[in-house]
Amino acid sequence: MTSSKLRLWESALLLAFGLTLTAGVWASASEAALAERVLRLHVVANSDSQEDQALKLLARDAVLAQASQILDGVSDRQQAEAALAPRLDELALAASQALADAGCADPVQVTLTEQWFPTKAYDGFSLPAGQYRALRVSIGEGAGRNWWCVVFPPLCLASVTEESVETAADGVLSEDQVALITGQDGGYVLKFRLIEWWQELLQKLER
C-alpha cells in the first residue's frame, strides 16, 4: 500500500473517530440534560404471576394519584424530590391500601434512588437509556417484572389527569427536549439508540 493510500486511510479513521466522539458527546449531554429535569417512576412487582402483575398496576395508580397531589405546583426535579422525600411512607401506605383492598398483604417499600433505565417507549413519547433519579416502589419480594415511567413532570398520569405530554412538560422540559422525546424533531429511534450505545460504551470503559 502506498504512503498516499495510508494517509487516506488514516484521515478516514481520524474522521470516523471524530464523528463518533462528537456524536457520543452529544448523546451524553442530551441524556444528562434530560435526566436532570425528570424524576422517573420504577414499580417492581412481587413476582411475574398474573395476579402480582395486576397488583403492581394497582400500586402504581395509587402512588401516581398520591404523588400528583404532593407535586402540585412543583416546578423542577429538585423540588419534586424535596417534596416527596419526607412523604415516602405516605406513598407506601397509599400503595399498601390499594393492595389490601384487593386482598393482598404484601409489604411495599418506596425509596428515592439513582438507577439505570433502558430506552423505553410510552404512549406519545419515549425516553433514552441512562442514569436517572427515580421514585422506586417495590412490592413484596420485588422479584417480578418492572413498570417504568415518569412521576415528574407528570408524563404518565394520563389515567389520572388526562394531560398531554406537551402540557405536562411545559415549563419543565425545553422545546427541543419535548421534540426529542415525542419524535417531533424527525424521530427518536436512531438518536436514542446512539445515546444507549454511548452509555453502554462508557460503562464498559469504567469496568
Low-confidence spans: pLDDT under 50, at least 5 residues? 9-28, 158-163
Topology, number of strands: 6
- Output the structural class: alpha+beta
Strand order of the largest sheet: 2-5-1-6
Distance between the termini: 38 Å
Number of helices: 8
> Gyration radius, to the nearest Å?
21 Å
Biggest sheet layout: 4 strands, mixed
- Our estimate of the beta-strand percent is 15-25%
Q: From N to C, what is the helix and strand string?
A: HEHHHEEEEEHHHH
Mean pLDDT: 79
Net shape = globular
The residue fraction in helices comes out at 40-55%
Description:
There is one protein chain. This protein has 207 residues and is α+β, with helices and mostly antiparallel strands. 54% of the residues lie in helices and 19% in strands. It has a four-stranded mixed beta sheet. The chain has a two-stranded antiparallel sheet with strand order 3-4. A hairpin with a 2-residue loop joins strand 3 and strand 4. Helix 1 packs across helix 8 and helix 2 packs across helix 4. The longest helix is centred in the N-terminal third of the chain and has 33 residues. The two termini are 38 Å apart. 31% of the residues are buried. About 13% of the residues have low confidence.
